[in-house]
Write a structure and sequence with these properties.
Number of domains of chain A: 1
Largest sheet of chain A: none
Structural class of chain A: mainly alpha
Oligomer: homotrimer
Number of strands of chain A: 0
Order of helices and strands of chain A: HHHHHHHH
Shape of chain A: globular
Distance between the termini of chain A: 53 Å
Number of helices of chain A: 8
């Protein structure tokens, strides 16, 4: 089980690196710029979580994550220059990555004895902050904050479900699988049926 | 006194969450995007201070702050959609929040035995970094850096006054009240009489 | 030797503060905004390195760095308002600063027993993150990520050379000088002969 989570987590890091590199293509970045944006996208969420919890940063301790992010970034750069990869190709792997990052992030925070609401937000942080960093580095408003199909919301619901299930006595492994399925399902349903949250209207800066 | 500071601090967190959510309205954000921008605005300054000083992050230890930020953000979102809140309404609470955040931040850094200049900048950080994060997340140049009525300057003068007063023997509580009044007064006077610092001229990127 | 590194490091901090302040001139910032951007540019790289490695932040421990950054920023602001400083004036000091920051950052990470790939990226982080923060605060895409003469690449090659040289038994001091020369030479050659990495083409956001 632990080995499974480790390697699925590694895959999620790689998928995030792909989306970071693809996104940097809009901004005339060069190879190293694209790779660094890829690394920030892949490792940013877990890094911010570890800093906030005052844990050792996960990829400083185990640089396999860094190798995965850099290697994937390098490959993606050259593949994407040769043949245009439609970003839609990565929507489902990205949803799996979101589910996994969220649940792992929440579990890590719970083991660190963070209070429950903090732990749920640490799950959301692990899931979405990589993409927020990517958009900041590309000088865009973070996509995850804008009106669109549920993303952070799916993560948050799953994180709260995980905490609730463990609170009522469901074993940690079972609760994790259920919560991961909730995130994934919510995200996929939101994409399929264009489920969105209410939004603000655009107004000029006063 | 400590309980007073605690609850006034909580109020300052809530006021900052309001300004974050109102500001996100310019960018077509949805409910969760607005709430997360509100949380970053409310908790960002103290978080960066705690990370730089290697303290436990204040809202990870006491999640009441997080509840205050999230709850206020939620309320603000729905109220602001129903009736447009003029941001000017919050200028005076915001000035109170700036004064309080600055003085609390400076005190925390001094108790942590930070050198005096560092401590004064930690006060400024606590007071203004939330708004800087808000503007970065909304993809704007941080308002506090632009030519405008004294803001960070008011905070810095107050922080230095606090340190100077304690250095010459004024008791901590008295010095805090005086320094808070200085920040508040400077900010209010600057708004009333449009007091600004010298600015650079706008030039295109070379 | 240690004293030499210390004071050359201080000079690099000052040079970075200058570039930060000059850059802020494009955005109608006021005195304190420009100074804070200068401080973030000068101290940002080492700060992120120290946070990621869970070390004490260098300028919180020794506020001389902060004095250097603030003092240089103040001077630069008033000099640059009186007579326009061409940013090109600082390209060579900036290259020296990049070389020094990179090698010091890598050495710090190695002493902290970071794995080698992490250590090399900590060198790059120390060298370039200040400029990334400057560009984020000025609401631009970070210059270092865009197609242009080698910058982060020069830093990374030098950091890897340092690690390789020490691995094959070259003493630390000698390896540092060689690696620093590599960064500096690569950067200067890249500027002279417009050496760039391959880049992505600009595409609109899908």
């Amino acid at each position: 089980m632990d080995a499974l989570v480790y390697w699925v987590g590694m895959a999620a890091v790689a998928v995030n690196a792909v989306t970071g590199v693809l996104d940097s293509g809009r901004k005339q970045m060069d190879l190293i710029g694209a790779m660094l944006v890829g690394v920030a996208t892949a490792l940013g969420g877990g890094t911010v979580r570890d800093l906030l919890l005052d844990r050792n940063v996960f990829w400083v301790v185990d640089q396999t994550y860094l190798v995965a992010a850099l290697g994937t970034g390098l490959l993606t750069f050259f593949i994407a220059r040769a043949l245009p990869l439609p970003p839609k190709l990565f929507l489902i792997p990205d949803a799996v990555g979101l589910a996994l990052f969220t649940i792992v992030g929440t579990q890590v925070a719970l083991q660190w004895h963070a209070p429950w609401l903090v732990a749920s937000l640490m799950g959301v942080t692990t899931g979405v902050v990589g993409g927020v960093l990517r958009d900041i580095l590309c000088n865009d408003v973070p996509l995850v904050f804008l009106k669109g199909e549920l993303y952070a919301t799916a993560a948050w619901v799953g994180a709260l479900a995980l905490i609730g299930l463990q609170e009522i006595g469901v074993p940690s492994v079972a609760a994790s699988w259920v919560a991961m399925s909730i995130v994934l399902l919510l995200r996929l349903l939101a994409m399929r049926f264009h489920i969105t949250l209410p939004a603000f209207a655009q107004k000029p800066r006063p």
